[in-house]
Amino acid sequence: MPDPQLQADGARVLADLTTLRGFGAYKSGVHKPTFSEPHMRSLEWLAQRLPEAGLAAEIDGIGNVLGSSPKSGPKLLTGSHLESQNYAGWLDGPLGVVYALEAARVLNPAPGVNGAVEVAAWCDEEGHFGSFLGSRSFVGSLTEADIDAARDRSSGRTMRDALREVGLAGRARATAQRGRHIGYLEAHIEQGQLLEGGGLAIGVVTSIVGIWQYRISFTGEQNHAGTTRMAVRRDAGLALARFCVAIDDRFPGACGPRTVWTTGHITLDPGAPSIIPGRAEMLFQIRDEDPEVIGRLEDLLQDMAAEVSAQGRCRVAIERIRTGAPALMDAGFQQAIEAASATFAGGRSIRMPSGAGHDAQVLATIMPSGMLFVPSIGGISHHWSENTDDADIVTGAKVFVDACRRLLSA
Amino acid sequence: MPDPQLQADGARVLADLTTLRGFGAYKSGVHKPTFSEPHMRSLEWLAQRLPEAGLAAEIDGIGNVLGSSPKSGPKLLTGSHLESQNYAGWLDGPLGVVYALEAARVLNPAPGVNGAVEVAAWCDEEGHFGSFLGSRSFVGSLTEADIDAARDRSSGRTMRDALREVGLAGRARATAQRGRHIGYLEAHIEQGQLLEGGGLAIGVVTSIVGIWQYRISFTGEQNHAGTTRMAVRRDAGLALARFCVAIDDRFPGACGPRTVWTTGHITLDPGAPSIIPGRAEMLFQIRDEDPEVIGRLEDLLQDMAAEVSAQGRCRVAIERIRTGAPALMDAGFQQAIEAASATFAGGRSIRMPSGAGHDAQVLATIMPSGMLFVPSIGGISHHWSENTDDADIVTGAKVFVDACRRLLSA
After folding, report:
1. Inter-chain contact B224–A283, Cβ cutoff 8 Å?
2. CB within 10 Å: which end of chain B, N or C, has fewer?
3. CA nearest A224: which of B252, B190, B77, B7?
């Protein structure tokens, strides 16, 4: 067990999280959309805390908070995000930011640590305006045209207007200095039930899964729901329902051990109760860490579509609308988290992929990256009732800080 | 073959239909929503034609056009509607109105006919603002409160505002004088393929089917599409798809020979591609002429819902939101149409139920009623490409006028 001076202070971590929970509180969760008043208060709160950790604070032109150390030696970048989904949980984002702040507070003044922890809160990880806008800006993959095009998916307000309204327009966007960081470490709630189900404390993320998304369209023949006999119908909605069921029946025979697939959206056209739908559409998503598995499932999907079209009632068209390659987490980072878990979590850790997207997948495009998960009670995510046991929060903080120490001492 | 003076003039019928097609023309169809400018021009056109048929014209306070005869003797009420669905066909409604006008023109001055044909164009049969508002007003089943509540389903404009804008507010609503009419006869395109498929010219409607409509709701558990393993999901959307397929598999074993059922609308909640739907809902409709068949299918639906709920993944709730009893057409009217078909259509007629709703089902609540159908090319309905062969239109007109003659001579 290392020097208690080099450990996370569990009470301080819980107190900080409770403070952040007070901004935009909603039931036991928070409502903190990107650039809302409680989100901006959260950014300012973090910027005010950073000097206590020996860091110079900056809020840049896209809403990232960055804490930079003047200390010499290797720098480890850490962080997560502070905005929330609408009416969602209190830990999704803030947990990783407070762990990062705690690591900086503990390790930056420590005489035995050869370097410094730097802290970031990436703006809009939750995608109110776009896809990982803050971290993509930092790694240099977000253009001014991307920002011009970004709009709040709820209100339609442009990102440019929002930046102006919160006083960030005109500020420079911070970008990564090549070679400055030995890597990036992020903590997050699991958002699933693997840890809880196994009585485990820490998930050591091996990869962030790829997400392939499809628009699957069915074309039949629109007709009158009263005068068209069942035998002659070409009902696009029914074809869609049969397709969903066929996916559910046939994917298990071709998928990997952790593949997941989801139909999250369905529309029937024209969508009136007395009209047989002539067209129907579904948004379908496959996630896996192995591109080969995804490829196999995509082939199966195409085969199934061809079978339906061959029957002649309805035509099926599959369009891939999103291709997200999996991001591999660095082996050295995984070892550091595992070693820290052995010390502070009694070794109750497991290697696992992340089914959700995180800023770490963006940072991983320019530096070695790692992630650790803490358990989610009941696996609940993106809902105000999301929660994690206080003891698990504290254990996670101790493992996180120790993993940072190991990475900076390596 | 009766006196040629007592027959429909096919060329005049086609010319009138062509004139009406010019109001609100869209491709080969029309766009004539209730109280639109082309709809109002159609009503005025009809009102101007009625005196040629010996009828006094009136447009009442709900938008019905009524032509009343001063002639003594029995009165036969005839008609249909003049507004259209959005961007729909040219004959759905106008065909029946022009047949009625033609019957009045031919029969009202005829010395051998003991009575008169009266003509109506019922407002809003297509349900832009409500359900059979015009004919329900006439039979006395529409309250002022119903009108207060009626709104255009597309624009949200209230019916009161629309009536004011077209200058009908403040006019009295005409209502049926009990005992004035021996009954009501309406002609319409079939909107299906039974006549065309059998090489037939006339459908003799036996009943207008009942429509039972249901809201079927599925409750599962909303969760993250990336972090929730397939094995623990409670996907309400998938439960809905399986239910649709189960209906399609099991209803044929319990339905009647002409039962039809349709899922016209589906929503997944929250409807985002990365969220497993926690709730899903479908609007489901059953149509049949036999209430016993509907009752049996409703029982089956409830059994299927109980089976799904018993499996424990998702709960299913079935709410009946519309109950429409079938309307029986009068036997004497059916005989008159058949006899007229024997004379003018070479007997190429068939008795059949109407799968679609019509004003005749409303009139049937207060007087003997009948309907005849003419063939629809390809069964297409509620689409601008809807059509009927000119020869079939003319045959239908001759059968209609002769059926009116027989009913007034009986």
Report:
1. no
2. N
3. B190
Amino acid at B246: A
Work out the angle between the directed axes of helices A10-21 and A37-49 (0-180°, nearest 10): 150
For residue B351, give the 3-state DSSP assignment: strand
pLDDT in tens, B279-296: 999 999 999 999 899 999
Comparing CB atoms, the residue among A248, A259, A273 nearest residue B265 is A273
Average pLDDT over residues A304-313: 93
Token pair recorded at residue B32: 């004539």
pLDDT at A2: 63
Write down the pLDDT at residue B2: 63
Given an 8 Å threshold on Cβ–Cβ distance, is B193 in contact with A223? Answer: no
Q: Of B163, B157, B73, give the one whose Cα is nearest residue B123.
A: B163
**pLDDT tens string A230-241:** 999 999 999 999
Closest C-alpha to B188, from B397, B348, B338, B45: B397
User: Model confidence at B1, in pLDDT bands (50, 70, 90)?
Assistant: low
Residues B84, B71: contact at Cβ < 8 Å? Answer: no
Q: Which residue of A has its CA nearest to B232?
A: A193
Q: Which of B391, B293, B399, B279 is nearest to B2 (CA)?
A: B399
| Residue B323 banded pLDDT, cuts 50, 70, 90 | confident
**Inter-residue contact B319 to A258 (CB < 8 Å):** no
Q: In A77-131, where does DSSP find H-type helix? A: 94-107
Lowest mean pLDDT among A13-22, A321-330, B351-360, B370-379: A321-330
**From residue B50, how far is each of B101, B112, B118, B277 by CA, in Å?**
7, 21, 9, 57
Which CATH architecture describes the domain A4-204+328-409?
3-Layer(aba) Sandwich (3.40)
The domain defined by A210-323 folds into Alpha-Beta Plaits (3.30.70)
Give the CATH class of B4-209+326-409: alpha beta
Give φ, ψ of B175 to 5 degrees. Answer: -130, 155
pLDDT at B131: 84
CATH 3.40.630.10 domain position(s) in chain A: 4-204+328-409
pLDDT digits (tens, 9 = 90+) for A137-185: 999 999 999 999 999 988 999 999 999 999 999 999 999 998 999 999 9
Copy the structure tokens of residue B77.
């009420």
CA angle B138, B144, B147 (to 5 degrees): 85
**Residue spans of beta strands (DSSP E) within B301-397:** 315-323, 327-328, 349-354, 369-374
- The reported pLDDT for the residue numbered A1 is 60
Q: Is B382 exposed, middle or buried (0-12, 13-18, 19+ CB in 10 A)?
A: buried
Residues of A in contact with B126 (CB under 8 A): none
d(CA B24, CA B41): 9
Q: Do B285 and A225 touch (CB under 8 A)?
A: yes
Q: At what angle do helices B331-344 and B390-409 cross, to 10 degrees?
A: 130
pLDDT at A248 over 80: yes
Nearest to A134, CA basis, from A123, A143, A126, A142: A123
Best mutation target among A128, A131, A227, A268 (most B Cβ atoms within 10 Å) is: A227
Q: Which residue has the tokens 């939101």?
A: B321
Q: Quick check: pTM over 0.90?
A: no
